[in-house]
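Tutorial sheet, problem 5. The two components below are modelled jointly, 504 residues in total.
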Amino acid sequence: MSDEGQSVAAAPWVATVEDLEALLFVVDRPITRREAAKLLEASKSDVDRLVTALTADLAKRGITLITHGDELQLASGAEQARAVLAWVGTGGSDLTAAPLETLAVIAYRQPVTKGGIEEIRGVDADYALRVLLERGLIEEAGRMETAGRPIRYATTLEFLRRFGLGSLADLPALEGDAEALRHLELRSEAPDTTSSHDADSAAEPDAPSTPAQEDAATD
Amino acid sequence: MSVRGIAEGFELPDPSVPDIEGVIFRREQGGLFGRTRSYVALGEFSGPYGLLLALIERDELDVRRVPLAGFADEFLRYFAEIPDDRLETLSSFVSVAAQLIVLKSRALLPRPIAAAPDLVNDLDVEDEADTLRIRLLRYRVFRDAARVLGDRLMQPLWYREPPTRQLPGPKAVAAEPLVPTKSDPKRLLRAMVRIALRRKPLAALSTAPVGMKVSISDRLAAIREAVRLNGVVGVDLETLLGDRQDRSFIAVTFLALLELSKRREVEVRQDALWGPITILQGVSE
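Model answer (structure tokens):
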């Protein structure tokens, strides 16, 4: 028996889903997958696997795992917002129509430039972008390699949290006329070589209803 | 949704009707024979597609089929309501108004046979009406998505946040009374003499012209430049201020720093109370 006890102690530690859950429960800020891998003495692909498993495990619980590209954080579930409200002491904050619409364009077409947003909304986006940046709902996500190198915007982890989304994959599907959905590619975004992925996906008839890949937000 | 910025004369008592993209919709019972009248008012930062779509939807018409030229007059009427101090907004409305006017003028002229009405349903990008129609439909996709998202704002996810830094409280004030225990007029005189000796004569007020004015935009540019050069290590506020001691320079620098911090272009860090203030490149960069 004592031999067995020793061999257990000497065996390499293989982090489990529960280990990841415990770690994320204790840490009071978002941590990256790389940090989690280091702390759990696991590889990054192991962490990816654990994240997928934990997300599935938590589906029927009052807790959500927020995954924003590389960042991970445990939070209360969207349905539990009311249960937690009295403790946190403040409800959700409202956004007026213009910033909210601008945010919708960014969320579904990210990373997108100011020109792209204005192409869809047909109106100057300066004010709305400033409000969204100040609230930490969007961030700059690189620049487009065209004339003027316009800034591209993407949503943040704070956006996911404020809108009760576990990840960008949880965004409700876009709805609208099939014709309109087929015309979602933006002229102002087209000549960019790095956005070929976006242009491709927009060309497929059913692609526009799926949000841009998570990785795009952190690239 | 916001009801701010409602154009005067349009506010009517029915808050249950949802606003559309800064365009405020109001229905009113009454008027001739008790009929329902509909109103559209422009809100703050309303866009031209939002307005045109609101007009079409108010009449419960199909965007894909309705002749858009018919809305030119009404669009222009609301366009006239926009306060003319918002140039960026105005120009976007002008563009759509111009398209509607072109469409209307074409509708008044005899048509060539090729532009038969049965082509209207075919979303042919070549045709101007259809281009506008597609833009409206595309805009509607995101306007509706924004509404769905807006509903979710009441269901945020909450997480544990690191405790905020505790600042030390004010120093305890000595409990002894501040009144001197031994009252002696001579001591009072000596104290007065000491004060008089310490006092410097009033400096003559300077009559030189006021030095260079400091502008926020100059300081914004200076901070941006300093952060661009040393953003990774960070720049000390002391360095930014240099040896300038005049109050307006310091105040304007501080205001510029607050603005940059608000825009998340820079991150401001102070590790210890009264410690050096370091300015780093913002996280979004």
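Marking note: Residues 105 and 117 of chain A are 6 Å apart (CA to CA). Full credit if you identified this.
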